[in-house]
Design a protein that fits this description.
This protein is an alpha+beta fold and about 260 residues long. It has five helices and nine strands; from the N terminus they run αβββββββββαααα. The strands form two sheets. Strands 1-3-4-7-6 form a five-stranded antiparallel sheet, with no helix packed on it. A four-stranded antiparallel sheet has the order 2-9-8-5, with no helix packed on it.
Length: about 260
């Protein structure tokens, strides 16, 4: 038991050191009214200095940086007000004995501020520290920044320009002779291109004449290859064959006798 007790004391002490350093989520940019309380140092009990300030305070958040504005009552009594980083006086009202001060805060953890109170009427002069505890609950949290995609390239709606054809009237294409696949200029194709174009009637007539000539040539070839035989030719051959047979038979009989 004696060993466990010091261990528990150490754990509790570490929790008190760690918990105040826990920061809240980032607050969205804007201006908000926040309640607060001035406590005794390291305590949840309100200090007498809590009555020296008006509530609520004004919180301003700009690019994640937070600043507080609060109004000090009995401004003549509070001769020193020293938060971490210092404070600046925004406005002062001597008749109401009030002044507005502004200072920066990094989080909503308790903020220790040094003060000095001087009350001449009662000969009270005292310097001490207090904790300012601001209530940041219910404030809108900053949204995470989204990465913006790079702008898309504009879509090209224009049609690509086509190369001028030989018939488009371009001087460059009409003056050059066409080249073959080997890179040499084809004189024959150039000559053929230079021939005047015939109309459809002439082309049809020329084609008909060519067809007639081809038909006539084919007919002549058939006549030459297959000459016509007369009707008398088979009869003469038969008579000659019979005469030769008669002579052969008689000659054979004469030899026998």
């Amino acid at each position: 038991m004696k060993k466990i007790f010091p261990l528990l004391v150490s754990v509790i002490f570490m929790l008190f050191l760690v918990l105040p350093t826990i920061t809240s989520a980032a607050i969205a940019d804007g201006t908000y009214n926040v309640n607060y309380q001035v406590n005794k140092p390291g305590s949840n009990s309100a200090s007498m200095a809590n009555d020296y300030f008006l509530k609520p305070a004004k919180l301003t958040v700009n690019n994640g940086k937070m600043s507080i504005q609060l109004t000090i009552k009995n401004s003549s009594w509070v001769t020193q007000f020293n938060p971490p980083g210092g404070a600046s006086v925004i406005s002062s009202n001597t008749g109401a004995d009030q002044r507005v001060v502004q200072f920066n805060i990094g989080s909503f953890n308790p903020l220790t501020v040094g003060m000095k109170i001087d009350i001449e009427d009662i000969d009270y002069h005292h310097a001490y520290s207090v904790d300012f505890v601001f209530d940041g609950s219910g404030l809108p949290e900053a949204k995470p920044q989204q990465e913006t995609a790079p702008p898309a390239a504009p879509f090209n709606t224009t049609e690509p320009k086509s190369n001028p054809s030989p018939s488009s009237g371009s001087n460059t294409s009409s003056n050059k002779e066409p080249a073959t696949a080997s890179g040499k200029v084809d004189k024959t194709s150039t000559a053929e291109q230079s021939k005047p174009v015939q109309n459809e009637a002439d082309i049809s007539q020329e084609a008909a004449q060519n067809k007639d000539q081809q038909d006539a040539a084919q007919t002549e070839e058939v006549e030459v290859e297959n000459p016509e035989t007369s009707d008398a030719l088979p009869l003469a051959s038969l008579v000659a064959f019979m005469a030769a047979a008669i002579i052969f038979v008689r000659t054979k009989q004469a030899k026998t006798n």
